[in-house]
Amino acid sequence: MPPTTSTPPTEQDLLDQEKARREKLARLQESGVNPYPPRVHRTHSIAQALAAYENGELGEEDRLTLAGRMISRRVMGKLSFGHIEDGSGKIQIMVRRDLLEAEKYNQFFKKLLDLGDIISVKGVMTVSRTGEITLLAEDVTLLAKALKPMPDKWHGLKDPEVRQRQRYLDLLANPEVRERFRVRAQMVRAIRDYLDGEGFLEVETPILQPLYGGAAAEPFITHHNYLHQDLYLRISFELYLKRLLVGGYDRVYEIGRDFRNEGISHKHNPEFTQLEFYEAYTDYNGVMARTEEMVAYVVQQVKGDLKVVWQGHEIDFTPPWPRIPLRQAILDASGIDYDQYPDADSLRAIMREKGVDAPADASRGKLIDKLLSLFVEPNLIQPTFLIDYPVDVSPLAKRKPGTKDVVERFEGFVGGMELCNAFTELNDPLDQLERFLDQGRALESGDKEATPVDMDYINALSYGMPPAGGFGMGIDRFAMILTDQENIREVLLFPHLRPEKREEGDQQ
Q: What global pTM score does this model have?
């Protein structure tokens, strides 16, 4: 056990250690050792070597070469022990002076190597006196000299700012973080397995777009010098994927990056990973059923159970999930029936009357969304569908039969946050054009999240798009649930962060 009185190294300690490592680097080079050789002849990963030995596939005469980072070392005169680690696991190494040669053992292994150095070890597999499978070294080669010390062994790397800015250190110091991103990768693989098995075709659509659309968000703008054209980083795949339904594909999906020029929070990052799929000849009811089935399949594949613990809550993904009309959910939680307030001014007035901040420039749709965010969303811990949304917040969804201002749309919520969004797709080109024109007028009036008129998309719809259901889900938020994380940055390898604060006098 580590001593409880130990303290982390100071900044001066780290500088001194780095200086000592650079001196060792110089000594290695002076002695003719290349500290960064161009290649290594590794015979097995560590996991492969351990499995082969345990299965009786390696005999006492079988020599193999393993490589990895040296994460521990214990020097005991003529005999030393340590551990090396690669991406598959770790193994103990035993280094004896009589096998390695006295000079190499005394001068190279004991004095010029440091924890964190990446080395290769050639030898035979054995078992130590304590019963641990061990590689008995006959040769040790330096593959990469680490000039900076590893994060403090006992205190680890805990500062979120450092962990997220220098994710490579976080991954080195915290095995549970490495495992978290393996879970994320398994989750994405399971999504693909499900959709591929259901006959969906995975496609790729443009990231740089001449027009943006498919979501209520402000885009990032860039410029193509050769074409003298402003372009937008996509905020959604939607309009391109639905063009493919017009083109004759019945089931398509894409997993990729979207970009939205919005604030940063525990559940928002300006660059995020999205899944969208579109399916012909179904509606939002069919998509709800598919959503439950797909999510349950992924959870079962990744976690081995349909119940997941997230932030102290046991979340049960077993279908079916509750379906609650949005109007009823907001009325029950806030006491406000937005159907009784047909315009922004009247809804704003009742919200203010009840003590809710309602900005003077917010549209009716944005005010409804605020009621949802404040009163309903935080309490939806178990998987829940909210259904039937106002048309003024759903410009791409089909109206519910028998209504004028309600569309067939649902959002899925888990862990107090929106996980997915879907609807019966609007395929009437004339209705879609009118809604685009409404959005265009809102954009001209200063609504930065309104979308421009996409006449090429209208042209595509004019050739006939089959009735369809569409779906979008945030991969990052799903990963938060499956890895028990409350902050989206913990499931992004390299999250966007504010500029690092600099001390006065630092060079810019």
A: 0.91
